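Task: sequence design from structure.
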């Protein structure tokens, strides 16, 4: 086979030489005109070159040999015949562009352009393939402006040529500065032909958003979904509306998606989660039941069972819910959530031991999610020993992990580390528990406020600029009767955050309440008035102002403002400070009967308060 192939190659090379000789002889002895089919006016702005004498017969024979050899995949020899065909008929536009394309295939782009540039002036009608080839050659040889112009011409001639559209998009991405408007137009024409392929879709979506063409972005998502029925495009639309806080649009798109794909599991679960968030539990249950009805037994996958259990629990069908969740305790992906729901069901059944046990199981399987719930369960059932012991163990464990990651060169951002979150939670938990014990167990309250302050200081040692924790630090110092330190800390915060009205009120109340001097009480009133300028209907701020007037001896004004406070916020009636302050004001005004009623109310809320009174002189 090799010998016959070699023989064929030698024969063909000899034939090339023979055709060359014939072409030279005939051109010398004949005056043959180039034959071209009738064509419309050329659209290219370049002037056409006059027709050139040639030898069409030789050109045709050489071109036929070229086609034959291409079919045999003898590309190198075929290329030689193509060159001879173009040389034999130098005015033939088709042969010239075919030769230019052959040069381009061999990545001889300069040679290809040297053939194509004269060819574009030859007689004939330019087409999208020619424009596209010229665009490619200009791009490959560094003439970006000409490349861009010819890409545009190619697409104008044939917008269905998705290959050229794609090539033009690559050119536009490469050419700086990027012609964003043109790039968006090209991607917009290309995407429907490529079935909205995700990477390119994402790029066009990015361009629309960067150029603030939100309506075009939304139309793109809509067209992509209509064309492909791919739910991800509608999910992207929902995310857009969510990020822009357009709740009605979110609901509209989500409902439409569910109607379009009611048996798609991903859509069904999304719709169920929406009903859960909106507390439309009956509707959520209908979504799941409809899916089960359509799919039959095959629908009862773990997530469907989970939603059945969840909606049953939320609709008060606790026994059914318990059955569903009990089926999931061996499922690796949902067991922790199943245990958490079983804990809540047990709480509803007032089964304390099971409620705690199930939440401990949930936390053991997924501690990063359920550690808070476990602590709250201990707190709810007053398992204080377990509560503090477990919290301390969490802090020790997360502190060690934090320090380990801090020492690692791979970790650069520790601001979201769980240890910081736990320190905040610990501070809030300790202080909340301490507040409950201020009058009933003052020594324990002091210890817990001290623990809260230690948690805050540990946090600030890692992030000294946390505004929340700086405020907690000052507040806990005040609760520990370290007033001078607290006042100094509050003043430092206001230097950094001069419009922090919450701190203004706390500092003002602290100065008023400790009542060290008339000047200090007046200064406290200035801070409280400043806080009220930001939030004039805040009941706590108004209470601080009333307390200031009480300290200044203006009892009538104090009474007026206290009544104002509860008019703005009836929830303030549940605060023991309100009844304590009101009782003292009424007592100062001589209304001892009404003052007694206030102190009785105070006793109902905080029975261990030193001014608490009780009907029939009964104390707890």
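Answer:
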């Amino acid at each position: 086979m090799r010998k016959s192939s070699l023989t064929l190659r030698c024969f063909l090379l000899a034939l090339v030489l023979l055709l060359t000789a014939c072409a030279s002889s005939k051109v010398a002895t004949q005056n043959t005109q180039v034959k071209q089919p009738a064509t419309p006016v050329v659209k290219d702005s370049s002037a056409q070159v006059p027709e050139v004498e040639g030898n069409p017969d030789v050109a045709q024979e050489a071109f036929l040999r070229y086609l034959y050899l291409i079919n045999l995949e003898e590309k190198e020899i075929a290329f030689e015949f193509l060159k001879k065909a173009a040389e034999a008929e130098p005015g033939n536009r088709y042969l010239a562009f075919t030769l230019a394309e052959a040069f381009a295939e061999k990545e001889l782009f300069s040679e290809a352009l040297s053939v194509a540039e004269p060819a574009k002036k030859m007689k004939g009608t330019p087409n999208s393939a020619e424009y596209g080839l010229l665009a490619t050659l200009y791009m490959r040889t560094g003439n970006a402006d000409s490349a861009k112009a010819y890409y545009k011409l190619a697409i104008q001639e044939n917008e269905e040529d998705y290959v050229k559209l794609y090539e033009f998009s690559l050119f536009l991405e490469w050419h700086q500065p990027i012609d964003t408007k043109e790039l968006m137009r090209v991607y917009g024409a290309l995407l429907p032909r490529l079935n909205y392929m995700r990477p390119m879709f994402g790029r066009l979506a990015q361009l629309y958003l960067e150029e603030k063409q939100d309506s075009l972005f939304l139309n793109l998502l809509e067209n992509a979904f209509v064309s492909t029925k791919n739910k991800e495009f509608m999910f992207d639309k929902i995310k857009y509306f969510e990020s822009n806080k357009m709740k009605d649009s979110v609901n509209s798109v989500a409902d439409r998606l569910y109607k379009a794909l009611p048996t798609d599991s991903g859509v069904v679960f999304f719709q169920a989660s929406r009903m859960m968030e909106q507390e439309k539990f009956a509707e959520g249950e209908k979504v799941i039941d409809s899916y089960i009805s359509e799919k039959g037994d095959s629908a009862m996958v773990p997530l469907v069972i989970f939603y059945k259990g969840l909606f049953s629990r939320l609709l008060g069908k606790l026994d059914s819910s318990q059955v569903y969740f009990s089926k999931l305790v061996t499922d690796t992906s949902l067991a922790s959530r199943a245990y958490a729901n079983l804990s809540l069901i047990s709480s509803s059944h007032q089964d304390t031991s099971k409620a705690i046990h199930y939440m401990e199981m949930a936390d053991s399987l997924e501690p990063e999610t359920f550690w808070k719930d476990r602590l709250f369960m201990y707190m709810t059932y007053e398992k204080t020993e377990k509560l503090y012991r477990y919290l301390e163990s969490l802090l020790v464990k997360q502190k060690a992990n934090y320090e380990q990651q801090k020492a690692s060169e791979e970790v650069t951002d520790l601001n979201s580390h769980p240890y910081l979150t736990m320190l905040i939670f610990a501070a809030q938990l300790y202080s909340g528990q301490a507040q409950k014990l201020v009058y009933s167990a003052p020594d324990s309250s002091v210890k817990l406020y001290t623990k809260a302050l230690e948690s805050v200081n540990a946090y600030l040692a890692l992030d000294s600029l946390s505004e929340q924790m700086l405020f907690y630090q000052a507040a806990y110092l005040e609760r520990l009767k370290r007033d001078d330190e607290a006042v100094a800390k509050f003043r430092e915060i206001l230097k950094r955050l001069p419009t922090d009205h919450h701190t203004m009120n706390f500092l003002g109340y602290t100065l008023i309440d400790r009542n060290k001097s008339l000047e200090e009480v007046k200064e406290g009133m200035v801070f409280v008035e400043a806080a009220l300028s930001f939030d004039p209907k805040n009941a706590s701020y108004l209470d601080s102002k009333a307390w200031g007037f009480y300290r200044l001896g203006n009892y009538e004004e104090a009474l007026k403002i206290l009544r104002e406070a509860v008019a703005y916020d009836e929830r303030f009636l549940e605060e023991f400070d309100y009844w304590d302050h009101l009782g003292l004001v009424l007592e100062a005004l001589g209304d001892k009967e009404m003052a007694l009623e206030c102190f009785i109310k105070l006793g109902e809320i905080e029975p261990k308060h030193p001014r608490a009174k009780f009907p029939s002189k009964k104390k707890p």
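The first helix runs from residue 2 to 29.
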